[in-house]
Design brief:
Rossmann fold, 2 domains, 5-stranded mixed beta sheet, 5 helices, globular
């Protein structure tokens, strides 16, 4: 009996130690100084929306209605309604390039990706991605893409709102 109690106590001490270490680690990470947001994102007045396209599946089909430009058209409409940026017709006239892309991933999801680029250097400043279901009915797939578009747009709006910290700006999912 004493041997079993020692094993139980040892196991309990190990669990408590691991939990304490992970809590301390989480506290240390939250205490890290906030990294600055790229100035181009916060200060941009003009944006160019780049259509990186929709990748077809292996059969050559698109999963969502609206054709290969659906994500681009939908994102453009959201950005125009938001009114935060003046949408320009060339990257040379922009302070920020917003590149939208739908990628065919292996597995159950496609990826909707928004990449924020510096138009002068073509350096990636920030990237958001959300998954859209590629299984189910056409309506379910379209609703999933709409949801992903809404999440990515909301993430951009929070980030562009400005410097608290990157983690606070984008929020938790």
């Amino acid at each position: 009996m004493p041997r079993i109690n020692r094993q139980v106590i040892t196991a309990m001490v190990s669990v408590v130690t691991l939990l304490s270490a992970s809590l301390l680690s989480a506290q240390d990470q939250s205490a890290a100084p906030a990294a600055p947001l790229p100035a181009q994102i916060v200060n941009a007045k003009k944006a160019f929306i780049s259509n990186a396209g929709e990748q077809r599946n292996l059969e050559g089909d698109l999963r969502f209605t609206g054709g290969p430009d659906r994500a681009y058209n939908q994102f453009y409409a959201v950005m125009k309604d938001w009114g935060r940026y003046e949408l320009v017709s060339t990257p040379a006239d922009a302070d920020l390039v917003l590149q939208i892309h739908v990628a065919d991933l292996t597995g159950s999801y496609d990826e909707l990706r928004l990449t924020l680029l510096d138009p002068k250097s073509n350096v990636t400043l920030w990237t958001f991605s959300e998954h859209a279901a590629k299984a189910g009915s056409q309506k379910a797939r379209d609703v999933s893409l709409d949801r992903a578009m809404s999440l990515i747009s909301d993430d951009l709006k929070k980030l562009a709102a400005g410097p608290t910290t990157a983690a606070e700006s984008v929020g938790k999912k």
